[in-house]
Amino acid sequence: MAQWNIVITVFCPDHSSSSPTHALYDVSHHGQYQHKLQFPSIPTRRLVPMEVLPSCTHYKETRINLDWISKSTTTILIPSPSSPDHHYVLAEPEPQLSTADEDIEGAFRSAHIATSTNTFFRPLNRFPRAILWRITDDSHTLTLNSVDFVRPDTSRIDQTIRLRFHAPIKEQCVALADGGDVDETVVYVLLSDKTVYTLRLKPDFWKSESARKRLPDWCRWYCPSTFTLNSPHLLVALDSESAVVALQNGGLLKLTKNRETWVDADGTMETKYYETSYNNSIMSTFKQFLMPFSHSSVAAGTIISLTQWDGLNDEDSEEEPLRYVLSVSVNRALKVWSPEHASPLWEGNILNEPKGSPILNELLESTPRQLVKIISKETELNLFYAITLDPETNSFKIWSARKNSRGEFSKLHDEFPEADLTPTPPKRGAQWEIHDFAVEEKEDTGTYNFWVLWKRHGHSKVHCHELDFSELTEKFDQYTVVSQERLQDFPVVDAGNYTVGSQDVGDFWEEWILFPERFPESVIETVLKVYAKRYPAAREQAYATGALPSRIASTVVACHQEPVDDDSMDVDARSGLAAHWERFAKLCSELDRERQAPMKLALDPYSHFLWVVYADGMNSIRECLELEYILENQSVFVEEPERVISGFVETPNPDRKKLSSSRTKDVMWLIYAASKLSQAWTAQDRQDFRMFLEEYVNQDPMFATIDRVETLYSKAIDGRFSLEFLAELGAILDNISDVFATFGRLYYFFRERGTAQNEAHLTPFGEKVLIKAAQEAIHIDTNTLVNVFSLFVLICCSADSLPLANEPKHPASALAEFLELYFNKVREYELLTWMSKRKLAETLDEDSEDALTNVLNDLSVSDSSIIPAEKKNCPILQLLLQEQMGPTLTGAYGSNVAPYARSFISYLHSQTYDTIAVDTATFLLNFQAYDLAKSFLRFVPTTHWGTYIKGRIHLATDDDEVAAVTFRRAASGLANQQVQSTLAPGPIQAIIGDDASLFGTGFACYYYHVARLFLKRKNYPYVLEFTQLALDTLHIPTHDTVLDAKKMSELEGPLLRVLFNAAQKTSTFPVAYLAAARMRDPETQKAAIGALVKDMVEQGQAQQLISFSFTGLQTLLEEVLEKKCEEVVDIKNEPAYHKVLYAWLVKKGDFKGAANALYSRLTKLKTAEAGLRDPRERTITDGQLVLLNAMHCLERDNAWVFGTERSKEGEVEGENGRLVPGGKRVRREGGDAANERVVVKVEDVYREYREERERNRMLARGRFYLD
């Protein structure tokens, strides 16, 4: 008979605590009452004393998305025990959700929101060491991914493994263990069909597809017989060979399988453990006593939380190490188990209440969580300590595991029975519950950081308490807060505005949505699908192929142009494009909030890094950087300055210790005043100030800083604040003894701030964490710097309206120097902000990927021949991250990410602005991100290299004219020999490639390099220009740079060839002629003359050709022309090389040669017109007259030319086997009589002329002419 468990809650108004009374009913499906268990009400919450001091914020969460993991994923179908095929099966990619699917958000949750997740940490000498596991796809898929922060030098794992099972995975039934003596990760998985899978994953499994295909080597399953009568509820791994399963009846089942019996499925040994109370064990097996617990049913004695402690005996001891398991049940029972005993060694309850206490009848009804954890601290009396959590009261108990005389476990002892260890919730009056906790031992102090994860309606907060057993109560009530990232704050934009500062509203929202790591691609894609479903006009744009930014923009615009067909999506009174953009951003934020459901606190026991594991992401808990700490604690600082100052100075960070308390107090007051000024701005005034500031910091240095500051004040500050506010601001500044000196101290925070011990190689995940922390720090630093700078400008430019009572006089030169420093620092942070906000293109074509791979390999940024997915979409800031910036596991600043984020920012500060800007622009060029490079132009300095890179950017964006001007500006610097010292391996070396030798070796080499750049673009006018410049400056020394004769000779040849080619392409024939004339190689020169003749004759520039003198090249020219004449086949349609040769020879005075050229042309002309002559055509007769004219210019004895005679076979052949009138093509064979030449005299030409006239006359009369 089916049953349902119903819990009825009744509030008793006459009870002082107003706490509920719970009753558990079991009802049959007929609705009949069967049993009733009623428990008296008890107080469940502690009243929080109002005198608790306000908490300070010492830590911050750095949010890490896991979206990039899906870029390199392998999905494996795990066969079921009944499957006939137990081989490796690679799953096909899951189909994308179509527009017809209704539950778009449900599909997103199933694919990306984990129902259970945690992080497992292995010993230090293993890799992967930190493994994140997640359960998704309706509990059918187990996802494994390496989330190590650092890696060995030669190892890299970018693969995500998705293991898909045939049945759902039970909640709380995934456990991992290290292989111990064997380097492997053991994964235990319990499915809803009661099958236990054991996966042994060796290092090759993560790297090699072939290793994953050997499924029998790493995957085994077992169906315990105990599960036939007892349902499993919870699984915990003891080690690589055994696991413990909590049964529904309150007992435990230990499953043991040795490696020797790994292949044999029957080699698993089952060991059962039960409670000492036989009554409880028997009664809890009946279904009528079951109650709902999360997604399953449990009995009162069912264990819902397990943990273990492994003790180590002496190394010489042959005894097995001590091992104890602690458990917490639904009825609050706390038990200690041992593998050697079938029943618990000790029994109690997590509240340490005596038996029969009414509170023990109260059953735990919360969601699954860890309720007991171990502190591995052995003393003379104790084996270890344990901390238990009562989830109903949010209270903790600290227990010590007492030893007996043999050094074994004796009992659990409540160390502080009178202490009330109930943490203060984040907000009084709200129903916050403790979801998880972690204990971190402080190094060499004997105290502990006690981390508490609070949860309420999907929101979470992390607090840190101090556990000091000597002063437990006094210190536990005081805690520090872990703040959230400010990068995730939703921006406030004035309604109806179509511009935000200097940006269009669409550009503003697009930049905010696509900010690196703000939203994973899966969130944005899901929102696009929602828009496609609700806005028919946007369907095509949302599902279009192409880059994500263009799809978002086109989708929003399409929605703006069509009325909404769904009342739930009606545009409100602010209808317009801005409202649609804001709605799209809000949908992304709302969907992203579901991903932030807190799941676990994961503390690395070796590195002490602390992570908050969410449903779809991880957050790193790190120490606040200096400015973060000051800003997060401003409200506390106003009430208790000394408390905040002591927390700032008393820190392991040596950089903070350099500041005295008084100086720190002045700095905090100054930042507080700057924050007040920022809050006094209207949204539009603030945007205007940022816009003007951005314009002025990037102005040409020729403008004086003081002039730019005064202009900025008059345009963006003057008249924006009331006198009352200025008086209030002055009162705040009066707390500072020397305001301008404090400005100088504050400037220290924006400079290099020390470095950590960076030795290890970062993993892709580690790079993400470090860059995300740096992004947040840059965001905070930039806003603070702008606020402080605006205050500085206000003080300097409005001394009358904002007098400072305690301020000593400072010379104007000192103030100008301060302004210059801050102005340059604002400029630097504007650059870093731009780099942190942009990322490389969403998609890279094949050429871009090849370029990216080559550059990363050359610069040792990546040691992989394949571009990792996270590199394609990484923030541009990450391109400057050095590979070996990973922390050792014993950092000098403490165990969190903050020191290494500070180290990276310090590295950026140690580089000059010019170096960062030039390197970044060069990176963008290398990656072919030309649009980003163009928008980055405003940051590129006017140094020699900066000007050159500007030219390269203009060249890449098809602005050749500006590029040419820019290249000319950079010539004087890059031609200097000193520039060679800046050509160390790096991004510039990568972009200039083999032309590195052309820099710093004179103008000619530099101009030759530029000419080659334009040659690649086939922009021949600029190739011509810069090649001429190179030749003109070939013999001009630059400072200490002068080319020797050999170098000039080697360079001159290529220059002349490039010059000739460019002049030829641009039809600049005089330049081409001069280039050919200067060539030294005979073969090259002959080819150039031939090409010059061909181009000029074909383009009708024969007159210009023969006007050239060809000094020393006349014979070569004639040879070229004669060869061209011989190659003519169709005299009527091919270029008139005979006429050009005739004209050249006449100009030269060689009438003999001219006559021969004319006769050769006349012979080919007769052949071309044979049988097709028009009697009115005078081409042949005119040619004969010209020939006669040329022959009459010769001496009578010399007035003859060479011709050919008819062969005996009646065939007539011209030169080189070509036809002459009346003949046909025959094969010429050396001294054949058919090819003998004859002398043609003037009389012969006259005769041929008369015959031609007679032929034309007869043909004109319609008669035939016969020879």
UniProtKB/TrEMBL annotation:
GO cellular component terms, semicolon-separated: nuclear pore
Residue ranges annotated for the Nucleoporin Nup120 helical domain, each copy included: 693-800
Nucleoporin Nup120/160 beta-propeller domain segment(s): 129-628
Provenance organism: Ascobolus immersus RN42
Keyword Transport: yes
GO molecular function: structural constituent of nuclear pore
Keywords: Nucleus, Transport
Native organism taxonomy: Eukaryota, Fungi, Dikarya, Ascomycota, Pezizomycotina
Positions of the Nucleoporin nup120-like HEAT repeat domain: 921-1098
Major location category of this protein: nucleus
Compartments, record wording: Nucleus
Name by which UniProt lists this protein: Nucleoporin Nup120/160
Keyword hit for Transport: yes
